[in-house]
Amino acid sequence: MSFTTLGLSEPLLKAIKDQGYTEPTPIQQQAIPVILSKRDILAGAQTGTGKTAGFTLPLLELLTKVKPTRNKYAVKALILTPTRELAAQVGESVDTYGKYLPYKSAVIFGGVKINPQIAQLRKGVDIVIATPGRLLDLISQDCIDLKEVKFLVLDEADRMLDMGFINDIKKVLVLLPKDRQNLLFSATYSDEIKRLSETLLNSPVLIEVARRNTASESVKQAVYPVDCTRKKELLLHLIVDGKWKQVLVFTRTKHGANRLSAQLEKDGITSVAIHGNKSQNARTKALADFKAGEVRVLVATDIAARGIDIDQLPHVVNFELPNVPEDYVHRIGRTGRAGNEGEAISLVCVDEHEYLANIEKLIKKDIPKVWLKAFKPDPAIKAEPINQGGNRGGNRGGNRSSRPRNSSPQSSSKDSSKRR
Prior knowledge:
Blueprint: H1 10-18, H2 26-36, E1 41-44, H3 51-63, E2 77-80, H4 84-97, E3 105-108, H5 115-122, E4 127-130, H6 132-140, E5 151-154, H7 157-162, H8 166-173, E6 181-186, H9 191-200, E7 205-208, E8 219-225, H10 231-241, E9 247-250, H11 254-266, E10 271-274, H12 280-291, E11 297-300, H13 302-305, E12 315-318, H14 325-332, E13 342-348, H15 353-363, H16 410-417
Parallel strand pairs: 1-6, 1-7, 2-4, 2-5, 3-4, 5-6, 8-13, 9-11, 9-12, 10-11, 12-13
Helix pairs in contact: 2-3, 3-4, 6-8, 14-15
């Protein structure tokens, strides 16, 4: 199938050709014609499937059919994303494919000064890509007009709910006209997503390009059992011995990311940490340096990694397993993108066996174990509750914390979402 068969106009086809693409991905094949038919959709698509172009292309096409109004400041399309990085990525896609169209777009997120964003909106924009918190800030200052929005996109809706944005989303929804087209994209499904889709979508078309809550088949997964105190040593061994040039490493906490990145630097491996406490400029530079190959290791938390889009990223390492199994699917989805193969390695200590079991239950498969003789775990070490704050206890392989192992992560997620 060719892009020319999907019903897109010449300016969009020309922009696609400029990018060197000739055939749409499965999500694009399915989503573009349905969106062009003006139907609501609920799309289940993993990262790296081309879903961003899957909604930006038909959205731009449909905008050509929207009649001009007297209010030149009215926004015609609103795209909500959970993080700054993803907002920037979607904004880049809109600019890339809309280069031969007259539409103006604005990317709106927190962590940067609000006045330049206000100035941009006051000049008039057709498409707004925003994180919920900053959008509500601008709404409260009467800086944006949503009364004529024709298209609403919720990108990575599952992550927005995980980050505690549901109330913010509801506040935005009541300000939008009822007569609009809604597109909801989610990499994973949950009861919350189902409830949101029931209230938001009107007779939606369900589109799925992968089994629900599963990891991409193009990603080779492996678990390396190791004592917790030797994880840094094992990671260094894998990077050096495997001659890895580019690897994304996940930690649970911001402090853990900083510590690990600093240790890698001491060991002679160029590394940078990216998380919610970093300024937007620092995060943008870190990602740019990583993509350019100037930084060998990018250490990230789950929230900061959303929106990282690197087609040929070869390696992802879970230095610490996530306590929410769906986050594992998101993490390893950073590799094996756009038809490329990738490798996802998890360094698992005795404390994390329950997390691993929950992940394997979710993805419905056992992850192969790789036992390195030099890093074989000490069987005398017993599991201890995991401290989400990242502080280790004593000289054992476990963690000490008063927090129960199965306590909910939602409170910490909501706190961090306020900074988005």
